[in-house]
Design a protein that fits this description.
Chain lengths: 427, 297
């Protein structure tokens, strides 16, 4: 008999360990680079002091894919935590349509909150779903061309290129000249590895030739303008050689930024965040660079891919009222101003860009305002992940020389048609 | 069963079952239920942004026409074949060497284990740096030796990336093979070798007629573990190539994972179940061809 008692005791001990009750706290999931995490920590500290609400700040990994994976698992399991979280702009449709988000507009009336200061184009395109706002932009990002002023001057150019042809011409000449003493020098660096960033660069090249991914609400990739643009991307690496061979394997944002910052490139396509890092002490290009809109093809127009992170409240949150308090605090004028001043990032509120204190720190605000008006967005589809995977694979394969541009585009279109057959039905 | 009943008292048998129960429960809760759950999910259209409904074998039918799925099966099987064979070869060589009494054997045995002790994500990052286009040591050596005029983009071609993944995996898991085989070697009575030497056999003969047959049970276990592990390969590829270039190194697990993140749990589950089936079939195959059951008896 004693063995049975012992057995039950041991089993109970095993079962009961770890069943501690959790204190209910508002949970906010964040992630990203260390300086971003620091920003959130200090902001949440202030919020706790002023509001008396305790916040559990959970750090997610810095990789965007892993952040999404963590959120998808919690949401699909209908967990009460996290209450508040950040979302990459391209997740929004999936999150709305999966019913994982609460509409935010019902909170506005009693809180005296207004959506007017936010960039209208952004919130109405990506945050509104079935007449309600389910998310709001915390910061926005766009693709830009960074250039070396000193090198352009040295070779007698008065300014950065307006068209891709000019870029090619300047880059070819300067690369040839610079390589005599710096063999690792490249004309133009951009994101070409097989990952989400490649969809953004592809979108920019194709839209700057009058093409693009979507046409009249449908995915329409197999267009002449896209074939020319994709052919040009391939040629930059394989024919003209002004972009290095590892563009399609290694080049993500940070690889591109570090190489440009070492002084090993003339032009760089990157997001806004790179500016501040390039201008830091210790950067080889500090004070030698400029930033401008991306070039265009002769027939097209200059565009910029839109990125950024949006904030939302979980449908399964056990404290939506307090969650909204936090969201409102994060989106307030003063917090968004801190975002620019401390982090050098770009808030989703347009009224920050006219603030005198901000303008002093950001003399190029006028340029940004102008570029913000011609952003292009990636497709707003709940099955965007699959569409993106097809584009990444085919464009990357084309850059690797595995297939010509028109074949790559035909393949993308037929694969995406197939994906739509599976996911676009409503029943 | 009869033997057991004769040898033990009834309450002893009952106690024995009670003490086995936690292990059985563990197997049911953590192994059987998840597999069944995955099977059930795979029979539904379980997409986060669409209403859930039973769809029978739709997800499996979709697999049959999915080019990327077949590509990932081919890649996974090729990877399993090449890497497990290489691990077996190097593991055997290392085990034979370490089994001889050479000076500093204890130190070498520990040193051999080091790769096994490093987390996969860390070693994958390390190999990524080694194969790096700009500052990787492989390109440095190749250029210094004059084997190529320009740096080679190792991770940029399907073959190069495949080679890099296999090398990283072999480096990381050969120690596992070595340790298991070493334990097997230690269990072979030395008398047999002495006797064989008296008979004037060569080293090769002793290896094929004594070592290999007596090592067979241990060998099958080691191969089984490594093969099942290799079929599930995920983390190394996730960090080293992310499945590129052009999807050329996407393993089955990585392919399933991509569908989980995009919210299609049904299709992801169907792919996961294929991983399970492939691993299961390979295990059965090993046990069959090696006559493992008889050996154990």
């Amino acid at each position: 008999m004693t063995s049975i008692k012992l057995y039950i005791l041991v089993m109970l001990a095993v079962l009961l360990t770890g069943c501690a009750d959790h204190e209910r706290k508002l949970t906010f999931w964040i992630g990203g680079a260390p300086q971003e995490v620091d920003y959130w920590e200090s902001l949440v500290d202030e919020f706790e002091r002023t509001s008396g609400i305790t916040v559990d700040l959970i750090r997610q990994p810095s990789s965007t894919d892993q952040r999404k994976q963590g959120l998808v698992i919690s949401m699909a399991a209908e967990q009460p935590d996290p209450d508040v979280f950040l979302m990459d702009i391209v997740w929004l449709q999936q999150f709305f349509q999966s019913g994982w988000l609460q509409p935010l507009d019902p909170f506005w009336g009693r809180a005296g909150f207004s959506i007017a200061p936010f960039f209208r184009d952004v919130v109405d395109t990506v945050d509104r779903f079935a007449g309600h706002y389910y998310a709001l932009p915390v910061f926005i990002d766009i693709g830009l061309l960074y250039y070396r002023k000193d090198l352009l001057n040295k070779y007698g150019y008065s300014g950065p290129p307006l068209t891709w042809r000019e870029l090619l011409q300047q880059a070819s000449e300067i690369q040839a000249g610079e390589r005599s003493h710096n063999p690792g020098f490249n004309g133009f660096l951009w994101q070409g590895a097989q990952y989400e960033g490649l969809v953004c660069t592809f979108l920019e090249f194709s839209a700057s030739n009058g093409g693009g991914i979507m046409l009249d609400g449908q995915v329409r990739l197999n267009r002449g303008a896209n074939a020319v643009a994709l052919g040009f991307m391939q040629d930059l690496i394989r024919k003209y050689g002004i972009s290095p061979l590892n563009t399609y394997t290694d080049m993500r944002e940070e690889e591109v930024r570090r190489a440009f910052q070492r002084g090993d490139a003339l032009f760089e396509r990157n997001w806004l965040y790179a500016w501040r890092l390039h201008q830091k002490n210790g950067s080889a290009v500090k004070g030698k660079i400029g930033m401008t809109a991306l070039p265009q093809f002769e027939e097209g127009r200059s565009v910029a891919a839109l990125g950024g992170w949006h904030i939302g409240i979980s449908r399964h949150s056990d404290m939506p009222g307090r969650a909204w308090e936090l969201v409102r605090y994060i989106l307030s004028h003063s917090s968004q101003k801190k975002l620019v001043l401390n982090l050098g990032w770009y808030p989703g509120r347009s009224d920050i860009y006219t603030d005198p204190e901000v303008l002093k720190k950001m003399p190029y605000a006028g340029l940004l305002q102008e570029i913000f008006s011609r952003v292009v967005t990636r497709p707003n589809l709940p099955y965007y992940d699959q569409v993106s995977a097809v584009i990444q694979r085919a464009v990357n394969g084309c850059l690797a020389g595995k297939q010509p541009p028109d074949a790559a585009l035909r393949r993308m279109q037929s694969e995406i048609d197939h994906i739509e057959d599976i996911y676009a039905k409503k029943k | 069963m009869k033997v057991v009943k004769d040898r033990y008292r009834p309450n002893e048998i009952r106690d024995a079952y009670l003490f086995l129960l936690p292990m059985l429960l563990f197997a049911v809760i953590f192994i059987l239920l998840p597999v069944l759950g995955t099977l059930v999910t795979s029979l539904f259209r379980e997409v986060s942004f669409l209403p859930s409904r039973f769809s029978g074998l739709d997800n499996y039918l979709r697999l049959t026409t999915d080019r990327h799925f077949w590509q990932s099966i081919r890649f996974t099987l090729l990877f399993v074949g090449v890497s497990v064979a290489a691990e077996l070869f190097f593991g055997m060589v290392l085990a034979l060497v370490l089994n001889e009494s050479v000076p500093g054997r204890g130190f070498v045995r520990v040193a051999v284990l080091v790769p096994w002790a490093i987390p996969i994500a860390v070693s994958a990052r390390m190999w990524e740096l080694i194969f790096n286009f700009d500052y990787g040591v492989v390109n440095f050596i190749v250029l210094q030796l004059g084997l190529a005029d320009a740096p080679i983009n190792w991770l940029g071609s399907a073959t190069g990336a495949f080679g890099a993944i296999v090398i990283s995996d072999v480096w990381k898991t050969t120690p596992f093979m070595t340790i298991i085989l070493l334990a097997g070697l230690a269990a072979i009575p030395q008398d047999l070798y002495k006797q064989a030497m008296v008979d004037g056999t060569t080293f090769i003969q002793r290896f094929f007629y004594i070592t290999l047959p007596l090592l067979r049970p241990v060998l099958v276990v080691a191969l089984l573990f490594r093969t099942i592990d290799a079929v599930r390969i995920f983390d190394l590829i996730y960090v080293l190539t992310g499945g590129g270039p052009g999807g050329g190194t996407t393993s089955l697990s990585l392919y399933a994972f991509k569908y989980y993140t995009s919210g299609d749990f049904g299709y992801g589950s169907a792919i996961s179940l294929v991983v399970f089936l492939v691993a299961g079939l390979l295990a059965v195959f090993y046990i069959r061809i090696t006559g493992f059951r008889e050996v154990v008896k």
